[in-house]
Amino acid sequence: MSGSSLSSATSTFDNHRYKTTWDSVIPKSNRKLKYSDAEWLLRCKLAAGYRVAHNFGWTQNIFNHITAKVPESEHELDGPHFLINPLGLRFDEVTACSLIKVTLDGKLKDNGTNAGPLFRQGFVIHASVHAVRHDITCVWHCHHEESAAISMTKTGILPLCQEAISILPLVAYHPFEGTANDMSEQPRIQSNLGPRKRILILDNHGPLTLGRTVDESFTLMYGVCRSCSYQQKAMAAVGCDLSKLSIPTQKELEDMSSRAKMQKYKDGKGVDSSSELVFRAMARVAEDYYGASNIYDIEEATIESGMHTTTTSTKSGPQGNKLISSL
């Protein structure tokens, strides 16, 4: 699962028929929108991310957040700005237009569809990352149970599977400080994350992934959750005796890492996947289930729409049901 955009090798395929690219699904309007084209695309992808997270069970009632820096907002006097879900909506109720826009100081720039306020704990964590990591766009946080459980162990994520091996060089850890409502924790989050790491495991809490795109942030979170699910099951199978786990040696890990970095294959047989292909596949599940128009609510985005009148689909089945099997 490498890269953040589609390989040129896929450009000749029927992407619109199979909806494998964002261009094939993002609605367009001949009326003027409230947002730039770049922000509208980002809002749609972020709203899809919330639906995908819900389908995987990466939710905790109305809590947890996926945020994204608004394109070009870093040039604003009070920039950058980022998009975040309003407190009160479930992940399967979030739409492109319901997302609220805030500054790093917590000032509300756009209240979306007036669905709810800014949640302080989510703001503290996400603003701390967006303030210093200008190389990334999306910050994805969840309380996936197995990942949270592994964050409570002193072993951290172990190199037990290919997913874990691919993400381990990107992982940093932040000690547990309780609920994240204290602004004074921000410098410590920033320090422990550092300038290059893409995954921050909040001890006794859960994972945080950083992507140059929403697609990339999802792919990293998928790798974290998959790794932790395997690890929890493996540790349970051997009674938590690490000596009974098949853990690669350092030399084996280096060889595996070198193989994972291969981008072009001299034999010409096949191509690598990309974050966009992976995320689009899961977004299609959400679009088919909820209806794309209930996620990408372009009528709300038009300047002529006036009052907010969009009705959001709540087609989600019994609370806790997952459309995709648990990781």
Describe this structure as you would to a colleague:
With 327 residues, the chain is α+β, with helices and mostly antiparallel strands. Helix content is 35%, strand content 10%. It is built from ten helices and eight strands. The protein has an eight-stranded mixed beta sheet, sandwiched between helices. Strand 7 and strand 8 (206-211) form a beta hairpin. Helix 2 (37-56) crosses helix 9, helix 3 (120-132) crosses helix 6 (186-193) and helix 7 (214-237) packs across helix 9 (275-290). The protein is globular. The two termini are 17 Å apart. The model is unreliable at 1-9 and 306-323 (pLDDT under 50).
Which key terms come to mind for this protein?
8 strands, 10 helices, globular, disordered N terminus, 327 residues, eight-stranded mixed beta sheet, alpha+beta, L-fuculose-1-phosphate Aldolase
Silhouette: globular
What is the N-to-C succession of helices and strands? Answer: HHEEEEHEHHEHEEHHHH
Helix content class: 25-40%
Cα gyration radius (Å): 20 Å
In quaternary terms, these chains amount to single chain
Largest sheet: 8 strands, mixed
Portion in beta strands: 5-15%
The total count of helices amounts to 10
Structural class: alpha+beta
Strand order of the largest sheet: 4-3-2-1-5-8-7-6
Uncertain segments of ≥5 residues (pLDDT<50)?
A: 1-9, 306-323
CATH architecture: 3-Layer(aba) Sandwich
